[in-house]
């Protein structure tokens, strides 16, 4: 049985010929940002990927069908809160397809689909991770840990992001990434970026300074060593907000979330919205800028990886 999955002609042709493609998520459109920023961000990301010489492939669920290479009209449909699109993690895909729903795909769902159709590079804003506890708060059974982490451990995709979202416990998230075997590489940085902020105090052991360096690591990781885990490429946000400002806003947002009993999937969108309001739009501006920057870097990495794999293929098939 084939999954209900439709690829745009442009994306299908690019994948088939080994041309560079960048997957883009749509939970940021459907849940992460309010209109009109959400559609604007999607358009700016796609344009940044094209400027780098790669084909953008926005992934989402439209009317019970997975779309790889969503059109502007399909993105506008996901960007309309009145249509109540679902938030799809990887585990939600099958039930949402069966129900004929629309959904924005999170990092976990987008990485799973990108791996399935053969797109090795994917850009997002920030990844999910281990959520924080408030001071003196007892962990309620298992901690709230984003499905993004476990999916990245099994999807051979390079996710370009500005780090785990600042609403999270960054130290615990860094430990979880290590445990799960997800490689973390700084792109022109030796410190884990913290989404809105460029500093986290958590050092990164590995860094690259250009797209060719990133592509070389991807080739070694997947093609030479045969590893199947994802790789996180971490890019500092180009218009960061001061860490103290972010921290104060996050703590207030967390307290408000607890007070209102916000749970499950609603936690991340609630916290992002509250931080954006508390910083008077500074976090919002940082979010838009980092999304575009990550898409540009992902485009460059996709171009470099496509060229490096072509060269390696040509080398292998050369007669001795
Ligand atoms: N990056 C953003 N805004 C977002 C997200 C990422 O700039 O809204 C989304 C991603 O889709 C990510 C999701 O996978 O938030 C994580 O949600 P949760 O913590 O519920 O797993
Ligand atoms: Mn969660």
Structural class: alpha/beta
**Strand/helix succession:** EHEHHEEHEHEHEHEHEEHEHHH
Q: Which strand-content bin applies to the residues? A: 5-15%
In which range does the helix fraction lie?
A: 40-55%
Q: What is the makeup of the main sheet? A: 11 strands, mixed
For the record, the CATH class is Alpha Beta
CATH superfamily: Indigoidine synthase domain
Distance between the termini: 43 Å
The total strand number stands at: 11
Radius of gyration: 19 Å
Low-confidence stretches: none
Count of separate structural domains = 1
Q: What ions, cofactors and ligands are bound?
A: pseudouridine-5'-monophosphate, manganese (II) ion
Q: CATH fold name, please? A: Indigoidine synthase fold
- Give the overall form: globular
CATH architecture: 3-Layer(aba) Sandwich
Number of helices: 12
- Overall pLDDT: 94
In short:
The protein has 320 residues and is α/β, with parallel strands linked by helices. Helices cover 47% and strands 14% of the residues. The termini are far apart.
Provide a descriptive summary of the structure in words.
- It is a single chain.
- The chain is an alpha/beta fold and 320 residues long.
- It has one domain (5-313): Indigoidine synthase fold, CATH 3.40.1790.10.
- Helices cover 47% and strands 14% of the residues.
- It contains twelve helices and eleven strands.
- It has helices at residues 9-17, 27-32, 37-51, 72-78, 93-98, 107-117, 147-152, 170-180, 211-224, 243-260, 267-278, 282-317; strands at residues 5-7, 21-24, 55-62, 65-68, 86-88, 103-105, 121-123, 158-161, 183-187, 206-208, 231-235.
- Strands 1, 2, 3, 4, 5, 6, 7, 8, 9, 10 and 11 form an eleven-stranded mixed sheet that branches.
- A hairpin with a 2-residue loop joins strand 3 and strand 4 (65-68).
- The chain is globular and about 65 Å long.
- The structure holds pseudouridine-5'-monophosphate (PSU) and manganese (II) ion.
- Residues 144, 146, 267 line the site of manganese (II) ion.
């Amino acid at each position: 049985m084939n999954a209900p999955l439709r690829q745009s002609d442009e994306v299908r042709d690019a994948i088939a010929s080994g041309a560079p493609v960048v997957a883009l998520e749509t939970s940021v459109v459907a849940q992460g940002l309010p209109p009109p920023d959400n559609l604007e961000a999607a358009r700016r990301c796609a344009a940044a990927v094209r400027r780098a010489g790669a084909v953008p492939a926005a992934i989402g669920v439209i009317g019970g069908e997975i779309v790889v290479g969503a059109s502007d009209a399909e993105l506008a449909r996901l960007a309309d809160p009145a249509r109540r699109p679902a938030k799809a993690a990887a585990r939600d895909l099958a039930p949402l397809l069966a129900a004929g729903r629309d959904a924005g795909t999170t990092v976990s769902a987008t990485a799973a689909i990108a791996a399935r159709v053969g797109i090795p590079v994917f850009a997002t804003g920030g990844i999910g991770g281990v959520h924080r506890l408030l001071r003196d708060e007892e962990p309620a059974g298992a901690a709230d840990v984003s499905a993004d982490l476990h999916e990245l451990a099994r999807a051979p995709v390079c996710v370009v992001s500005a780090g785990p979202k600042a609403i999270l416990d960054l130290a615990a998230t860094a430990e979880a990434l290590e445990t799960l075997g997800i490689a973390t590489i700084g792109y022109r940085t030796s410190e884990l970026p913290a989404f809105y902020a460029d500093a986290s105090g958590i050092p990164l052991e590995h860094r690259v300074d250009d797209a060719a360096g990133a592509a070389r690591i991807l080739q070694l990781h997947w093609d030479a060593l045969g590893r199947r885990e994802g790789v996180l490429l971490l890019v500092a946000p180009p218009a960061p907000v001061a860490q103290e400002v972010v921290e104060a806003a996050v703590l207030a947002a967390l307290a408000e979330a607890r007070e209102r009993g916000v749970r499950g999937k609603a936690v991340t969108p609630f916290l992002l919205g509250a931080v954006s309001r508390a910083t008077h739009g500074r976090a919002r501006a940082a979010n838009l800028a980092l999304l575009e920057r990550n898409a540009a870097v992902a485009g460059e990495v996709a171009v470099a990886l496509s060229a490096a794999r072509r060269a390696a293929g040509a080398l292998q098939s050369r007669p001795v």
